[in-house]
Amino acid sequence: MNSPSRHFLLIAALARHLRDPAFPPPRHIAIGAASPIPAGAAWLARAMGAEFRLSLLHRRRGNPFTEGSRELFDLAGQGRIDRFLLGGGEIEELAGQGRIDMFFLGGGEIDGEANINLIGTGEWPGLEARFPGSFGSAFMYFMVPRIVLFREEHSPRTLVERVQWVSAPGRSPAHHFRRGGAEVLLTSRAFFHFREGGFHLISLHPGETLAGVQAATGFRFTVAPDLAETPPPTAEELHLIRTEVASRLASDYPAFASRLAAPPPL
Amino acid sequence: MIGPAREVSVDALAARIPDGALIALPPDYSLSPVSLVAALIRRRVAALRLFCLPVGGFLADLLIGAGSVAEIETSAVSLGEFGPAPRFLAALRAGRLRLRDATCPALHTALQAAEKGVPFMPLRGILGSDILAHRPDWGVIDNPFADGPDPIVLIPAIRPDFALFHAPLADREGNVWVGRRRELATLAHAAEASLVTVERICDEALLEDERMAPGLITAPYITAIAESPRGAAPLGLLDLYEPDSATLTAYARAARDEEGFRAFLGRFLAGEENAVPS
Asked: Each residue of B156-197: pLDDT tens digit?
């Protein structure tokens, strides 16, 4: 699959997770650095009727963080959503959640326990292959209840049995303060849920096989009995991605947005 | 009058920074002091220690490529949409750069401790991260107010020698407007000195304007100011000008090798690479 069509699929698949009735609807999604596909997915979900607050850290105009980038982390640390924003019945369900309830993280390496490595491989600090660095992951993974893991490259070098360095651990001992962790993982090949400490394969993207995904994955995972194909974007989703989503992304991710908006190949 | 010095040029501002100084820089998407960094490189500053608030990009990569940096403390170094930071990666591989890996909120916390004048502040998260294992200067204590075990990380205060940034506006009293980039106010509060370039210096008294006052860093925190129109280009500046994608793409490509980087740097310092009109 060529790259623009794969990006349409990934945006649509992530957006569907944000609207999946099997999960509580997200209330406030924050999106950090260099995340055009998660940002596109959030805008798409909103365009299709999902109602959540969306705070983009790097938004060039109308940036919601009036205390600068520090505010993202303060916000994540601040505990429960204001009760006044919620109906009575929802308070219990959201108890213990932060003011931001969903955040996206990636990793140069992600392992089967959802540990993420943004440091690198080889001797510390990544003398073999250096990744950009951990950004806010070592904090956000603990403080935001629901983390969506997204890693486009799905190969034995990115999805590994055990990360070489831990930027942020997937799980913590019971006495470590932690509000949440990984909920799902989307890659260019497949979509997983994370449950009971391991990844669970939910769907394969068009053109992928179970054997192929197993070969491309360095960690063990369980497979849903009703393993499905990730549905390709509908005509409505494609249209919205090319128009409204591309226009929302244009100021922060101009190159990416112009690829989305380009006319489809004949 | 008591207040920040008004320097006649960006070069005069850069001349205040000695070799080996600990300088703090905002990221590419904030108020980046590009012309001031160019002036630092022109004067062949050496052995700087960089503190990135909270990540490094084009400016950090330029300074590292120019051989001006001995050590960098940061949560990441990347050119964002333009790709990895090539000179950072090369210097790291060659063992020419000491890297102190952090995570974004830890860097903010270190400055918040400094602005409050306390020796450290606690921060949640981080437990179990290899970052913590490689930061002997960070500590972990048990929360003294908890009923049961509750380990929490302590981040020591950091006082950079110099905060450097480029703001849209200052007034004649030396108040500098940074708008919603309030983390730069914390940075200026924490730093020993703040050297600031601005698009322009205006005649109005900004503190008299209720709408502008909340976005100001007031004069007592500012050491010296120089005017530098388009001083953040080729990076963007708030809603005043967009990043120049063509130049940044050209940089990402050129800087993949030393020769290409040197050629870009020559054009950049001559003003040929950041003179693209908005």
From this structure: 999 999 999 999 999 999 999 999 999 999 999 999 999 999
**Spatial separation of the C-alpha atoms in residues A45 and A31, rounded to whole Å:** 14
The set of residues, in sequence order, having a beta carbon less than 8 Å from that of B268 and lying 6+ positions away, is B38, B62, B274
* Closest CA in chain A for residue B131: A167
Test the B interface: residue of A139, A141, A177 with most B CBs within 10 Å: A139
What CATH number does the domain containing B12 carry?
Answer: 3.40.1080.10
Residue B265 lies in a domain: no
For residue A58, the chain B residues in CB contact (below 8 A) are 29
Q: B201 in a domain, yes or no?
A: yes
CB A117 within 8 A of CB A109: yes
- Chain B window 24-43: which residues touch A at a Cβ cutoff of 8 Å? 27, 29-30
How many Å is the Cα radius of gyration of chain A?
Answer: 18
**How many pairs of residues across A and B have Cβ atoms under 8 Å apart?**
150
A136 in contact with chain B, both atoms CB, cutoff 8 A = yes
Residue A264 is predicted with a pLDDT of 66
We report the CATH number of the domain holding residue A68 as 3.40.1080.10
User: What confidence tens digit (pLDDT) does each residue in A111-140 have?
Assistant: 999 999 999 999 999 999 999 999 999 999
Closest residue, chain A, to B27 (C-alpha): A69
A266 occurs within a structural domain = no
ipTM of the complex: 0.95
Q: What is the pLDDT of residue A4?
A: 67
A236-249 confidence digits (pLDDT tens): 999 999 999 999 99
* CA-closest candidate to residue A180, choices A26, A59, A8: A26
The domain total for chain A is 1
pLDDT score of A62? 85
For residues A11 and A41, is the Cβ–Cβ distance under 8 A? Answer: yes
- Give dist(CA A235, CA A248) in Å, integer: 19
